[in-house]
Amino acid sequence: MFFFISAGGIIAFSIAILHLLRSCPVESCVEPEEPTNFPSHFYGAVAATFFYMGGRYDSINAEFDSDNWTFQTLMIFYFFFTVIIMLNVLIALINLAFTDGDETWYLVWLENRLRVVERVENLTFHIPGFRQHHDWFPEMIYYSATTMDIEEYQDTDDRNRAAPTSASSELDDGAADSPSGLQQDAPAMIEKPVQEELQEQIVVLHDQIQEQKVTSENQNRILQTHIQEQKASVEELGTVLQKRIQEQLQDQRASAEKQIAALQEQNTTLQEQMKELHTMLSFLTAKAMAGTS
Q1: What is d(CA 107, CA 104) in angstroms, rounded to the nearest whole number?
Q2: Whole-number Å distance between alpha carbons of 176 and 160
Q3: Which of 20, 26, 234, 255 has its CA 20 to 30 A from that of 48?
Q4: Which of 20, 55, 68 is nearest to 40 (CA)?
Q5: Residue 128 φ/ψ, nearest 5 degrees
Q6: Considering only 64-68, 116-120, 230-234, 245-249, which range has the smallest mean pLDDT?
């Protein structure tokens, strides 16, 4: 809105200066005796008027030195509008925005941090056994609020509390002039908003219970799927270990059989050697007996 107002003011002053310096009072326009340097084109006039705020007055230096009191008055209003009012309003808006950001940035940061922690904590419920083994989140969360929010909450709370009492006092004041039927319906009229509030609270609680039920069912499903996956992985590990044990037993059995066969071969060779030694001994004994005879 500020920029629209400032742009409208600059355009209006551009048209006024252009009309004052370039317009003709009669149909047959004649060039003035002292021609002005102010642009005759509309966009050039707007640009020149805008640059007056920066101190560029080369297009109207001659008019400042002249005795044209109308132009002097117009420029007084121009500088009062642009330099004094609009620039100060712009400075005030920037200061207000900076002050607001300086006062509320920490609360905004805390709120964003709270939302991030809340989302991360909700994700941990879907990981089996995570919250039993890791204590990463506090048991209490402190919620922050500005003073304006607290005052607004207190005002609404006070109004809600004062509404039933004011209604009851009005009914008591008009009880003498009201018929008996209205007097009997007064408690119902007072209790009706309370009943509506209770019904709304019951609906909200019912919705919350349904949401918690759905979330718990989803968590149970996720836990069951994780348990089944872990069970399948354990069974796979058992089968793999059983296969490895059987392979190792077969390898050990084969090596033992090989060792037994080698021992049997050694035994047969020893028996053959014993037979050869026995025959040699018998031959030697027979030869010795023949030599003695």
Answers
A1: 5
A2: 27
A3: 26
A4: 20
A5: -65, 130
A6: 64-68
Helix residue ranges, H only, 80-146: 87-124, 130-133
Helices 147-173 and 180-292: crossing angle in degrees, nearest 10, is 140
Exposed/middle/buried for residue 38 (C-beta within 10 Å: 0-12, 13-18, 19+) = buried
pLDDT band (50, 70, 90) for residue 52? confident
Give the mean pLDDT of 180-190.
Answer: 41
Q: What is the CA radius of gyration of the chain?
A: 53
Token pair for 235: 């069974």
Instruction: Tell me the two tokens of residue 195.
Output: 């009943």
Q: DSSP for 260-289?
A: HHHHHHHHHHHHHHHHHHHHHHHHHHHHHH
